[in-house]
Design goal:
Blueprint (H helix, E strand, L loop, with lengths): L1 H29 L1 E7 L3 H15 L2 E7 L1 H9 L6 E3 L3 H9 L9 E5 L2 E6 L22 E4 L5 H12 L3 H4 L3 E4 L2 H9 L5 E5 H4 L5 E6 L9 E6 L5 H9 L3 H9 L3 E2 L6
Parallel strand pairs: 1-2, 1-3, 6-7, 6-8
Antiparallel strand pairs: 3-10, 4-10, 4-11, 5-8, 5-9
Length: 263
């Protein structure tokens, strides 16, 4: 009988723990902001998340990747509170599916598109229609996937506009995000990479070989938006990202904040 009492008490206690555990997990989740952001934001967002947590005590979890990949994760139900894309296409896609709060969609940043080479193979590639590309076509070029990764989409637009696409296409290596393309150039596995200017600033292992003109591709715009039913903590972080303090840091990392209503 005594043994039955002990066992019954243990089972009852376990049931209580099972009931209480989810409540604690929910409470932890409520005090945490989950951000899905374009890979090119990795360095600056890590700093911003840390500063925000120190100031407010609100934890920020960041997940980085190609904007298309992140958008698809949200479609599949991945937990997220805030989405920051490297182009407007994927934000619009989620908005049409009612997976972001339309009232919070904000064009936040712009960037520039550049060509890079390994630091010990520094070169100058004039981004002009009449440039002879043969000296740079002996090895591989790389950028994000030209169908789904924003930097790759911008790159194809620029290459097409200059009449380079058919020459570069056979040498082009597609990557899952812009940071993967940067890494391939750092390792000298690609002779030329097309990335954002902000990425080129993050390492001394590459050199900028040329910067595309803004008219060579669609405007590079980073929109951000909260997901439906955003928590108070998420809205606090969303407003923080639009502060003057944050704008100064964004410029330091190679981005250009978009003034309200201006591109």
């Amino acid at each position: 009988m005594q043994r039955w009492k002990i066992t019954s008490w243990w089972i009852a206690s376990l049931c209580c723990l099972m009931v209480l555990a989810p409540a604690r997990q929910t409470l932890a989740a409520d005090n945490n902001v989950q951000v899905l952001a374009a890979a090119s934001l990795t360095n600056v967002m890590n700093v911003l998340a840390k500063q925000f947590t120190l100031q407010t005590g609100i934890a920020v979890t960041t997940i980085y990747g190609g904007s298309g990949s992140l958008a698809k994760q949200i479609e599949q139900g991945a937990p997220a509170d805030l989405f920051i894309s490297a182009d407007e296409k994927w934000m619009q896609n989620l908005n049409e599916k009612k997976l972001v709060n339309p009232n919070t969609i904000k064009p936040w940043l712009t960037n520039r598109l550049v060509m890079i080479t390994p630091a010990n193979k520094a070169s100058v590639i004039p981004p002009q229609a009449n440039t002879d590309l043969r000296p740079w076509l002996s090895g591989f070029w790389c950028t994000g996937d030209t169908l789904s990764v924003p930097v790759g989409i911008y790159a194809k637009q620029a290459l097409t506009h200059l009449g380079w696409w058919e020459q570069v296409k056979p040498k082009l290596v597609s990557t899952q995000d812009v940071r993967a393309a940067l890494t391939l150039v750092e390792r000298e596995e690609c002779d030329v990479g097309i990335v954002y200017a902000s990425d080129a600033l993050m390492t001394d292992k590459v050199r900028v070989a040329g910067q595309f003109a803004e008219q060579d591709h669609m405007p590079i715009v980073y929109p951000m938006a909260t997901l439906p039913n955003a928590s108070r903590e998420t809205l606090t972080f969303f407003r923080y990202l639009q502060s003057a303090e944050v704008s100064k840091l964004l410029v330091k990392y190679g981005f250009k904040p978009i003034a309200e209503g201006k591109y």
